Amino acid sequence: MMRRSPSLLRRILLPRADGRRSVTYMPRPGDGSPRIVTLIPGDGIGPLVTGAVQQIMEAMHAPVFFETFEVHGDMPAFPPEVIESIRRNKVCLKGGLFTPVGGGVSSLNMHLRKELDLYASLVHCCNHPGLPTRHENVDIVVIRENTEGEYSGLEHEVVPGVVESLKVITKFCSERIAQYAFEYAYLNNRKKVTAVHKANIMKLADGLFLESCREVATKYPGIKYNEIIVDNCCMQLVSKPEQFDVMVTPNLYGNLVANTAAGIAGGSGVMPGGNVGKEHAVFEQGATAGNVGNQKLVEQKKANPVALLLSSAMMLRHLRFPSFADRLETAVKRVIAEGERRTKDLGGSSTTQEVVDAVIAKLDWVSHR
Amino acid sequence: MALRRLVQRTLLNHSSSRLYPALGQSFSTDTSPSEPIRATLFPGDGIGPEIAESVKKVFNVAQIPIEWEEHFVGDKVDPRTESFLTWESLESVRRNRVGLKGPMATPIGKGHRSLNLTLRKELGLYANVRPCYSLPGYKTRYDNVNLVTIRENTEGEYSGLEHQVVRGVVESLKIITRQASLRVAEYAFHYAKANGRQRVSAIHKANIMRKTDGLFLKCCREVAEKYPEITYEEVIIDNCCMMLVRNPSLFDVLVMPNLYGDIISDLCAGLIGGLGLTPSCNIGEHGIALAEAVHGSAPDIAGKNLANPTALLLSSVMMLRHLNLNDKADQIHNAILNTISEGKYRTVDLGGSSSTTDFTKAVCDHL
Fold first, then answer.
1. Which residues form the signal peptide (chain A) (predicted)?
2. B242 contacts: CB under 8 Å, gap ≥ 6
């Protein structure tokens, strides 16, 4: 009794940090049957990091099976069997696809988003405990409209030397992205939604976006809503990021703001994210910068798998396997916090495999032992 | 009118050569003209007049051969310019070729163009140059920033050409022309060479906007070939944002189309401490240079002697460099940096408690 009481006391007094939920998730019978998820390794570091996810899913015995397809950035279009597979499975995990610069092939990432109508792109940028950054208290979710705006791809040469590009903003798309942002904030207990725009210059286009956001805001009186111009927003992000909570933006500004926010909170190697539509969800590394990596990272196998691992945890939660999601997330966060196994972008020198092994070792780590 | 001005100028020459016979000799190796250079000054609104006074005082103490021609923004719309800026003001800038502008608040209403837009269109200001460097002694989260953003200022996404196609669908045009892109790329490389910069990076999103940003990149590449000693690289905008907030020392000179330039130049201003410390200069056709302070007019502290004149002072230094008065420019620049780094006289926005006049006096003392 005397020997056992210290550990008993510790268990009562200290909070449990071992990833076990104290709330029981009551599944419906059959919810535990395995789900098939489409997997697209992609280009560059993609195969390396998706391989990491597969290893960890196996180690956890997660009820997820992957249907792998090879897609590369220089293909003219997405192979129809891949699209069929995603339509069937509803969920996909994807590595980065390289988009060639300046001409020829159109972006396959954009093609996928338009084909499956994945109209919301979400990036969750937050400080990871134990990872030193210049900014503290960052916890921003950037929700970006994914199908229209400046990325419509409608360009033409008027006369030689003069090129026009159309930016299209519709009420339909602006309304549904605003609706998604407020619904996300409501379901995740977020307090504030900020709309990012440049309506002082683009009065009609961004004005329409803002109008839609304001209309949706009136339906959620419990959530604060404000607006900020995009250049001021970037300036505030690098000086006072703690003022932002959920941000909703049109397509191009969302790209910039998401990458800036990811950069201040630790870099594109650790931010999870995904694209979601009414019927389908595609999970990938949050920030688009650097999701293909460079040749050196591929050769030395030192890509950072953390972002895709955290995105796959989001995917597990989306598939209604919350306990697996929590275990994975806790293990990954603990590996980052301890700091022994970090890849180059976080200041360490480990390889991808070393990080994966460390995460697997921590999967069932319990604090009071 | 012109005769009177000619007589005035001749009298001034005579008087200056009589009172200061050694004007040409006592000031350094710069070819200071025997007559002062005329420059247009727009004090602006709000805190504008106070910080303009600061600049005039510092220039006086440093004995810069500049004669200011002050113009105020009126409260009546001038039909010739469709804005509150009069034709005379614009003519003055066109004549003098250099100017300094304080913050201007565009009044809300219809029937007139915004002041900045008027200046830009009438004077053909095609490039906006903002050097961003960490001020020694004023600590921000980033202390190794030393870059220059050059932004195309006339076209791109800010053409203002929008229309509603049908209810609920709006189109906005982004225009990129070869002429404007070549012009700004030329200026960027010329600036890099003239200021000893090693690298020029073109920022774009040509993987998505293939023709528009592709044209911009093509023009940059053409100009880059003429300057083989300067390294040229191209960076996609999302990579650029990520790199800027992780490690700003990776960049040297950045050249960008209009929208990206707006966002990136404000981001860089945020890295070094905000718009209150950032100089800026607009380059126009025929060698016009209009230096300006990019912060707002701050009506809440107007008239209270609390404003920070650093941005306008640093912009006036840029103006001096444009005029090739490099020694004088360095003198004032060092005085400002020393004052801020010493930390004894800092205005309220930098965390100190000095007034505008105290800060100005400290800068003058350091000269």
1. none
2. A259, A260, A262, A263, A267, A268, A287, A289, A290
Q: Please give the pLDDT value at position B18.
A: 37
pLDDT at A24: 78
Nearest to A234 among B170, B177, B270 (CB): B270
In a domain, A20, yes or no: no
Please answer yes or no on whether B259 and A165 come within 8 Å at the CB atom. no
The ranges of chain A with pLDDT < 70 are 1-22, 102-106, 365-369
pLDDT value, residue A102: 57
Considering the domain boundaries, does residue A22 fall inside one? no
What was the pLDDT predicted at A365? 63
Whether residues A36 and A114 fall in one domain: yes
Rounded to whole angstroms, the Cα distance separating B221 from B183 reads: 13
Instruction: Give the three-state DSSP class for B218.
Output: helix
**B141, B166, B204, B208: which to substitute to probe chain A, counting the most A Cβ within 10 Å?**
B208
Output the pLDDT for position B5: 56
- Residue A260 shares a structural domain with residue A181: yes
Could you tell me the residue range of the domain that residue A108 belongs to? Answer: 29-118+272-369
Residue % of chain A over a pLDDT of 90:
65
For residue A234, what pLDDT is reported? Answer: 94
Minimal Cβ distance to A204: which of B170, B239, B267: B170
Sites in chain B below the pLDDT cut of 70: 1-34, 75, 106-113
Is the Cα dihedral B83, B85, B91, B93 positive or negative?
A: negative
Both A295 and A349 in one domain: the answer is yes
A176 part of a folded domain: yes
Answer left, alpha or beta for residue A301, where phi above 0 means left and psi between -120 and 50 means alpha: left
A190 and A220 part of one domain = yes
Closest of B169, B266, B122, B290 to residue A232, by C-alpha: B266
- What pTM, to 2 d.p., does this model score? 0.87
Residues A141 and A256 in one domain: yes
Contacts of A228 in chain B (CB under 8 A): none
Question: B-chain residues within 8 Å CB-CB of A134?
Answer: 141-142
Residue A252 pLDDT:
87
Are A103 and A53 members of one domain? yes
Write the pLDDT tens digit of every residue in A298-313. Answer: 888 889 999 999 999 9
Instruction: Answer yes or no: do A156 and B271 touch at CB < 8 A.
Output: no
A304 touches chain B (CB under 8 A): no
Report DSSP state, residue A220: -
323-362 of A, contacting B, C-beta below 8 A: none
Q: Is B177 in Cβ contact with A287 (below 8 Å)?
A: no
Q: Provide the sign of the torsion angle of the four alpha carbons B183, B189, B190, B195, taken in this order.
A: positive
Of A222, A237, A264, which residue sits at a domain end?
A264
**Structural domain total, chain A:** 2
Q: Are A158 and B178 in contact (CB under 8 A)?
A: no
Q: Å from A250 to nearest chain B CA? A: 13
Contact B176 A163 (CB under 8 A): yes
Residues A95, A198, single domain; the answer is no
Per-residue buried b or exposed e for A304-325, using 16+ beta carbons within 10 Å of the residue's own CB: bbbbbbbbbbbbbbebebebbb
Tell me if A103 is assigned to some domain: yes
Residues A156 and A251 in one domain: yes
Alpha-helix residue ranges (DSSP H) falling in chain B: 2-19, 23-26, 48-61, 87-96, 115-123, 178-194, 212-226, 237-246, 258-272, 310-322, 326-342, 356-366
Q: A248, A264, A280: which is the final residue of a domain?
A: A264
Q: What is the pLDDT of residue A41?
A: 93
